[in-house]
Amino acid sequence: MLALQQLFDLFTIDIGIDLGTANSLVYVKGEGIVLREPSVVAIEKDTNRVLAVGMEAKRMLGRTPANIRAIRPMKNGVIADFDVTQEMLNYFIRRVQKGRGYKHLTRPRVVVSVPSGITEVEKRAVRESALQAGARVVHLIDEPMAAAMGAGLPVEEPIGNMIIDIGGGTTEVAVISLGGMVVAKSVRCAGDAMDEAIIQHIKNKYNLLIGPRTAEDIKIYIGSADTLKEELIMEVKGNDLMGGLPRAIEAHSEEIREALNEPLMTIVKAVKSTLETTPSELAGDILTRGICMAGGSSQLRGLQALISRETGIPVYLCKNPETAIVEGAGKVLDSLDLMHRLEVSTR
Q1: How far is residue 261's CA from residue 217's CA, in Å, rounded to a whole number?
Q2: Tell me: the pLDDT tens digits for 37-85?
Q3: Which domains are assigned to the chain?
Q4: Residue 52's CB: how many other CB atoms inside 10 A?
Q5: 297: which DSSP letter?
Q6: Which of 21, 25, 59, 137 could form a disulfide with 168 if both were Cys (CB 3.0 to 4.6 A apart)?
Q7: Structure confidence at residue 95 as a pLDDT band (50, 70, 90)
């Protein structure tokens, strides 16, 4: 029976997926990260036909004619549109299988990372979506655990490891020891909430309407969580809310930092809350070892300094913040025993 399973494994493909609100990454066992695309799908309204997925679809955001919708099917780390998510996953799986010879003939085994705070219904939605998209079997693992493993933290050892994973839709905070999450907190406030705060600030102060892509650019180019040595200025273009005509203004890093204060304080509060409920022995380890940060939005300027100042604990960014989760999923693929121990149960 074991020999038969080993033979079957030779003719199948194992895939790890970081199904993110903003971006999705795919890891293939034995190869590494093979796909990195925005979690965006363009659909023809009348027929619901998928026209584009990923980067090609993202370029259409805010620029589509009336008969085309460019949408993000994931919201706050969970599925907001089941059918579209299924189409997106189907596209990713087919892309990965293409060009891999006989391995495209069998359905893949898939590991998908999910936020630690999602509901049973949301877990089932992720599993069912992946199965409908072509997976043979689906294993779910908690994002903070995957991020910690991908960041290289010694999660199996009897010491406290703290990870903060800030993605597009959720911020995951967890203390991990002996291969399990001792304390975990998930808040639906991350990169998207920062973008929305910038949109509202530009609207309120300048009477200018900008879209999510422009807000994201502002966050990347002049956004910060702490005072900069040299403050930045950026030209921002949008539609005047009074006249409706295009207009440009100059945005300053100081005002964007002020606009970001509310979502950033929500993240800081989640970190403090997790630390307050951490057992004292593990808290001592964290004080010594520091807090590790991962996730695309963790790269905001000055965010490490802000959290360190608020908690009194050293904070550092892992070497692979954008890929830590999917690399952790890839490590799970290498060990069936580890996969079964870390798998999130669904009723």
Answers
A1: 18
A2: 999 999 988 888 888 999 988 888 777 777 888 888 998 888 888 889 9
A3: 2-41+72-145+324-342 (3.30.420.40), 153-317 (3.30.420.40)
A4: 17
A5: G
A6: 21
A7: confident
